[in-house]
Amino acid sequence: MIFGLDDDVAGPDSFVGTTLDATEVKKYIHDNSRPRLLVDVDDALHRQHRVLVVTVHADHDIYSDTKGRAPHRIGTDCVGMEPVTQQRLREERRGFDPSGVPAPGHEVDSAALLRARQRLSASLRPERNALAKLSDSDLLRALGVADAAGQLLDAGRRLVGTEGTNVVYQYRESPGGEPRAVERLVGPLLTVYDRVLELISLRRQSTPVTLPDGQQLQIEDFPELAVREAIGNALIHRDFRMDGPVVIEHSPSVLVVVSPGPLVAGVTVDNILTHPSKPRNRALTAAVRTLELAEEVGRGVDRMYREMIRSGRPTPTIDATFEQVRVALVGGAPDVHIARYVAQLEPSVRDDTDAMLVLLRLCTTRTVTATAIAPLLQKSVAEAEASLRHLASERVGMIEPTRQTIRAAHPNYRFRETAVKQLASVLPYARHTSDEIDRRVMAHVREYSRITNATVRNLFNVGTPRANQILVSLVEREILTKTSKAQRGPSVEYGPGPKFPTSSDRRRQKSRAKDDGDDQETLPGI
After folding, report:
1. Which residues pair with 520 in a beta bridge?
2. Where are the domains of the chain?
3. Least packed by Cβ within 10 Å: which of 101, 116, 474, 525?
4. Distance CA 127, CA 209 (A)
């Protein structure tokens, strides 16, 4: 925290300086906090103004004023922290695991335990196969969801207990429409999780995308891995001390998952991609990891981002309050051009979340810099620059620094020419109007009497599929016609068609344009 700034002024002019004494500020904070807080207060000179820099060190305690009020920041406001919020924050800071406490009086669901054994038997790890052969009590202890006496912990109650968790699933034909199907699921997390995935899978739609080599991909409306991550996080990391179910709202265009409780202390929507793993329910998380449920759904929020971009869709929207966390995945028709381009990248690049985020940003803006992309990657500027340089390396070759900024500490990066050709239909700065395309193709044919797919690719910096579309359109309108013996392949040539404009046609067009201009000049007010 810095003293010596004008809150109502932006930029360098906000530094106005202060006359406060560093020792007095340190003493004031100490005397007016409970427990008494010691901070470092240092003098500094910035833009010719003296400021005080107050450094507060991380601590597990929750501090209040002398009247016991513990405020916390919400946006730009300081508001009092409710007792339940204080308790949750204190427990999370001190590493308390609510899923590790005993849960007497709860019964094990035999179907859920059977499902757990099936998962362990199907594992590729021999040590987990062996767990499937243990007795019920030994299996629960091995999973860490029961104590030494065989009594279920809260993690066991949630995972295999008869009333472990509850979910409300709703399907709507449109995001704002009436629910067409509603299911209220109460039971072990293992069985509820599988049932929810089944309900979503029953209504899954896909779009076929053909790659240049003829391979066909099926792009799902909601990528399965992203769905597993969203639902797994909601069920495993929710705050079970808060009443209410996990709510899933499913429509063909949006999948929304809402879980009770806030994000874990220290995790925000601005650092959720890069913050180290910090599970709220550690015993439960460890158990589902052993069952390899976490390996399917718990590879991090970055997997959701990566999978959505890979399928030609926007990144997830995550909103968090003190009452709930809401994750929204936008489905519908994918951008097949992005999906096709990503599918042709090396696996190491396809699996790189930074690469996918940079790709998505460059689909809307011509260049990016480390400074501009750092907040999106949720990394420092130096880390963002390292990611950009990696993507610009010869081994990856997706982007390149511009010639004018190549020697700068943080150059401007853009797509390489090959990427622009493959993504031309997506890039707003690479698009050509239909009139412009017609003019340039006809000008080339008029000068050279012929044109090929390769020539169109070079004229407009596009890939083979887009060049084919341009030529097919001109042939269908009889502006061009095939003039070579070859009917397919790169050797096909095109020449003037029946409706190719002649010299007299061009003169009439120019004359008409001139007449139209003369008419406009005679109109009043023009």
Report:
1. none
2. 2-95, 165-338, 345-423, 432-504
3. 525
4. 40
